[in-house]
């Protein structure tokens, strides 16, 4: 699987290790609570980067499937697996690949995570942080939100005690040959106000679309979410005082535009469709059949969806941030400008090195012919010409005089040696 990222500005740092770290978070085979498939998920760069920097051209990343085992799918070849995309894919295209690993497999989320990891790095430069976690499984809710706990337990739940109870539930469901759904909370912190669009690219619409595009996500709630249907205006409205909003029922978005508060989103994740428990289905010829799916499946998708949901949120916010920069005319950031200065200073130093080599050659020439090192007429001419160039280029003549005084005195030193 792979991903092409286009529209990325040139000259940005591209931290491949940070991308690998996010891919490792998504990888299966990390605990008893996720699929035991073994995939190394090493990211390969095909284009768009040079010496760790973006080139401004499309960046293509590829993650090869190494742990594939298509034989597990042989007995399912002609069957429609309940809860899967096999039936709809066949209706749409008239042909389908029954083996795992294709577009309707969770495997496709590697591309999202790789691209999202880069978006996260860029957002972090603006102080924007994206965090997701498992907040509910089978009615067991995370009450204590300890952000440091999330990556410490296999369910990626911020409440250690709730995580323990969730783990028990998942294992008992797994033993029954079944699976279970849950809720994942996605947060974006330090988002500046003003991101998004008032009509067609509303920020809440874009976030909902992006999260809903992840396999297995069946509902997206922003702020109070579905609860608003049972609330009064006085309960839901976020009132304001001099310091700003007093509450955050809106989930950080009003009128399709970020308010500057935390963006709060919940996604409802369905139970993994592949289960061992016998189910009724039909084959591609219309015959009624029984199906029991064995193989290496996630008993609960929530912990694996966490990094994918973060990636999708990051991609939406990064797009919105880039569009907002264009509106505000702030296309360049301080770090990009500093990078440019660094590049220019490097060039100046390279030029000085070349100049030094020539100066050494001139020194040898003068020595062989017994010519004096200092040539005042030539020096006067050098200064006159440099100052004229400085005036033409609108550069301070005082600065140019100082620089060439230093350069000429240094050259004399070299030639005398
Ligand atoms: C990270 C992740 C892991 C998943 N793992 C599995 C799995 O092991 N077995 C399975 O049957 N479905 C799994 N799914 C769900 C299916 O991909 C998804 O339910 C299916 O493609 C149908 O799409 P829909 O549920 O969005 O309609 C996973 C999804 C994600 C995002």
Number of strands: 16
Q: Cofactors and ligands present? A: flavin mononucleotide
Would you tell me the overall average pLDDT? 92
Main beta sheet, described? Answer: 5 strands, antiparallel
As residue ranges, the low-confidence spans are: none
Shape: elongated
H/E topology pattern: EHEEEEHHEEHEHEHEEEEEEEHHHH
**CA distance, first residue to last residue:** 62 Å
Which range does the strand content fall in? Answer: 15-25%
Our count of helices gives 10
Q: Find the structural class using helix and strand composition.
A: alpha+beta
Helix content range: 25-40%
User: What Rg is obtained from the alpha carbons, in whole angstroms?
Assistant: 30 Å
Write out the strand line-up for the largest beta sheet, numbering strands in chain order. Answer: 7-6-8-14-9
């Amino acid at each position: 699987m792979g991903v092409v990222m286009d529209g990325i500005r040139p000259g940005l740092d591209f931290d491949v290790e940070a991308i690998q770290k996010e891919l490792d978070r998504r990888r299966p085979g990390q605990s008893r609570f996720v699929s035991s498939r073994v995939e190394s998920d090493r990211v390969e760069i095909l284009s768009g980067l040079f010496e760790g920097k973006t080139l401004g051209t499309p960046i293509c990343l590829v993650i090869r499937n190494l742990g594939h085992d298509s034989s597990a799918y042989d007995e399912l070849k002609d069957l429609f697996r309940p809860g899967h995309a096999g039936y709809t894919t066949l209706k749409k295209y008239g042909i389908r690949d029954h083996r795992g690993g294709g577009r309707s497999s969770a495997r496709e989320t590697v591309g999202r995570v790789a691209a999202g990891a880069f978006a996260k790095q860029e957002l972090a430069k603006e102080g924007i942080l994206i965090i997701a976690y498992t907040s509910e499984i089978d009615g067991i809710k995370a009450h204590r939100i300890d952000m440091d706990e999330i990556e410490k337990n296999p369910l990626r739940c911020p409440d250690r005690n709730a995580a323990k109870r969730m783990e028990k539930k998942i294992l008992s469901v797994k033993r029954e040959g079944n699976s279970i759904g849950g809720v994942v909370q996605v947060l974006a912190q330090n988002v500046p106000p003003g991101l998004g669009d008032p009509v067609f690219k509303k920020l809440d619409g874009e976030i909902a679309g992006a999260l809903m595009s992840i396999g297995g996500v069946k509902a997206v709630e922003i702020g109070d979410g579905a609860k608003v249907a049972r609330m009064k205006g006085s309960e839901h409205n976020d009132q304001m005082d001099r310091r700003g909003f007093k509450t955050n029922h809106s989930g950080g978005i009003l009128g399709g535009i970020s308010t500057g508060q935390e963006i709060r989103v919940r996604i409802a994740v369905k139970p993994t469709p592949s289960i061992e428990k016998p189910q009724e289905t039909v084959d591609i010829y219309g015959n009624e059949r029984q199906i029991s799916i064995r193989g290496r499946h996630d008993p609960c998708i929530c912990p694996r969806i966490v990094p994918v949901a973060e990636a999708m949120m990051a991609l939406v916010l990064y797009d919105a941030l880039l569009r907002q920069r264009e509106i505000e005319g702030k296309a360049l950031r301080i770090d990009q400008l500093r990078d440019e200065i660094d590049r220019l200073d490097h060039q100046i130093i390279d030029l000085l090195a070349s100049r030094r080599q020539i100066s050494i050659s001139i020194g040898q020439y003068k020595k062989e012919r017994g010519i004096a090192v200092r040539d005042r007429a030539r020096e006067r001419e050098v200064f006159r010409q440099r100052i004229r160039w400085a005036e033409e280029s609108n550069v301070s003549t005082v600065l140019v005089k100082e620089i060439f005084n230093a350069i000429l005195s240094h050259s004399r030193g070299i030639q005398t040696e």
